[in-house]
């Protein structure tokens, strides 16, 4: 059976999350239904990562096995047509036919995420579902300095959800950068894999640093505590974007 790799973007606002669930619409369910309507095949797609309700994606990657060959761009256009007819907030950006040993989840080398904070006195209108509004001023340089305490190979128990199903809290964080452009503060994170709520936990803790309520040393101490109680408040899902996945052989 031919295997296809699809790069997908979606607005996570109306969905219960990436994973198919019984209590509401999911991104996975929307894609599987579009493929069923198109091909008549009931498929189970695998994604590179699960996202929670309200989290968005600009570069989620999935793979799916279909019973017949497709010209990749025709498959992309056909799936998008059915997603549009169903009024789903999901779009397929690219389709590639890949070897049968390609796995969207397990073949991934690195995953890239972005968390967006808008720091200004006025509430958000246009960006209300695309960023975390923080009304207080934030020192992004202090946030970046604190973030560097988290880069590297660590036990991230402090920054994982109590519901996280990962076997180990140990991860290697390749990048955690904080930059600012006007009112917009961007937190960019890269690692091979992340724990449940890890980036939103980072964002909530770094926000405290930006407000002057935690020092760089405090953030390091929170990491070393290996205690969920040492974490700042978990940032809301609206500011989180799954940006990109790197695989062997991809262009640099």
CA gyration radius, whole angstroms: 19 Å
CATH homologous superfamily grouping of the largest domain: Pseudouridine synthase I, catalytic domain, C-terminal subdomain
Q: Poorly predicted ranges (pLDDT <50, ≥5 residues)?
A: none
Number of helices: 5
Task: Kindly give the count of domains.
Answer: 2
Task: Describe the structure in your own words.
With 252 residues, the protein is of the alpha+beta class. It has two domains: 3-98, Pseudouridine synthase I, catalytic domain, N-terminal subdomain (Alpha-Beta Plaits); 110-246, Alpha-Beta Plaits. It is 23% helix and 29% strand. It contains five helices and ten strands. It has helices spanning 27-39, 72-85, 140-147, 198-210, 216-225, and strands spanning 3-10, 46-47, 56-65, 90-98, 110-119, 132-134, 152-155, 170-181, 184-191, 240-246. Strands 1, 2, 3, 4, 5, 6, 7, 8, 9 and 10 form a ten-stranded mixed sheet that branches. α1 (27-39) crosses α2, α3 packs across α4 (198-210) and α3 runs parallel beside α5.
Offer a concise description of the structure.
The protein is an alpha+beta fold and 252 residues long.
Strand and helix map with partners:
Elements: E1 3-10, H1 27-39, E2 46-47, E3 56-65, H2 72-85, E4 90-98, E5 110-119, E6 132-134, H3 140-147, E7 152-155, E8 170-181, E9 184-191, H4 198-210, H5 216-225, E10 240-246
Helix pairs in contact: 1-2, 3-4, 3-5
Task: Record keyword descriptors for this entry.
alpha+beta, Alpha-Beta Plaits
């Amino acid at each position: 059976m031919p295997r296809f790799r699809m790069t997908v973007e979606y607005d996570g606002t109306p969905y219960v999350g990436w994973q198919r669930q019984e209590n509401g619409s999911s991104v996975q369910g929307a894609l599987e239904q579009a493929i069923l309507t198109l091909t008549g095949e009931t498929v189970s797609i695998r994604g590179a990562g699960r996202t929670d309700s309200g989290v968005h994606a600009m570069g989620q990657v999935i793979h799916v096995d279909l019973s017949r060959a497709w010209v990749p761009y025709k498959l992309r256009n056909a799936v998008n047509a059915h997603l549009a007819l169903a009024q789903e907030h999901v779009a397929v950006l690219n389709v590639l036919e890949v070897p049968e040993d390609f796995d969207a989840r397990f073949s991934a080398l690195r995953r890239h995420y972005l968390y967006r904070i808008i720091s200004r006195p006025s509430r958000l209108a246009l960006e209300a579902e695309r960023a975390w509004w923080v009304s207080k001023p934030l020192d992004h340089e202090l946030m970046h300095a604190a973030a560097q305490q988290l880069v590297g190979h660590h036990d991230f128990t402090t920054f994982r959800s109590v519901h996280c199903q990962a076997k180990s809290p140990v991860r290697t964080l390749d990048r955690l950068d904080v930059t600012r452009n006007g009112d917009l503060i961007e937190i960019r994170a890269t690692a091979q894999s992340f724990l449940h709520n890890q980036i939103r936990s980072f964002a909530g803790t770094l926000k405290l640093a930006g407000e002057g309520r935690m020092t760089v040393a405090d953030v390091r101490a929170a990491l070393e505590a290996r205690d969920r109680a040492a974490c700042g408040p978990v940032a809301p899902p609206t500011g989180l974007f799954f940006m990109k996945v790197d695989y062997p052989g991809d262009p640099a």
